[in-house]
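Task 17 of the worksheet. Students: predict the tertiary structure of the chain below and write it out as structure tokens. Keep your answer in the requested format; marks are given for formatting as well as content.
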Amino acid sequence: MKTTIIGIAGGTGSGKTTVVKKIVEALPPHYVAVVPLDSYYNDTTELTDEERKAINFDHPDAFDWKLLQKQVNELRNGHPIEQPTYSYILSNRLPETIHVEPKPVIIIEGIMTLINKKLRDLMDLKIFVDTDPDERLIRNIQRDTIDRGRTVSMVVERYLNVLKPMHEQFIEPTKRYADLIIPQGGENKRGIAILCKYIEGLVPVE
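Model answer:
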């Protein structure tokens, strides 16, 4: 089985999940394994709660790149993996893992998917989902107040102090590595449709 590896990057709240969903829907059932970068934050079991709270989760150093590369390679070579799981509430990895079987298409999705050269070198297609900063802020407010127990003022403060500077320093520059940039994120139905057609052409559908 030939495996096609697709990397999808873009700022937080840019619509990456929507793009991934559309690709999954465009291909035959059970054809795609999604590997979220968010599952590969470093294990912080050794740290105190205070130390954990101080971690900048929007910095490349927050991720376990070695484990991610190892597991993507295993999937590519036809071996299943035990994907780690992560809790935003605890700011740590959970004991549970998710069993992921190798599939014809592997999608690696996350804010900094294109920042690591070794990981980029594994990819057949690199995509950057580009969305206006104010749109991304609104989506962050909607998501974090509902899913992550934060207040609006906490989300805005974090956006201004952490997300915005980290985006400009680390995420935005990875756009230059992308084979394809999708403006307006998940709203760009035509762009996503063209992308899905291209991926269908890459992947031999049985």
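Marker's comment: Residues 18 and 186 are 5 Å apart (CA to CA). Helices lie at 16-26, 49-53, 65-76, 117-120, 133-147, 152-171, 189-202.
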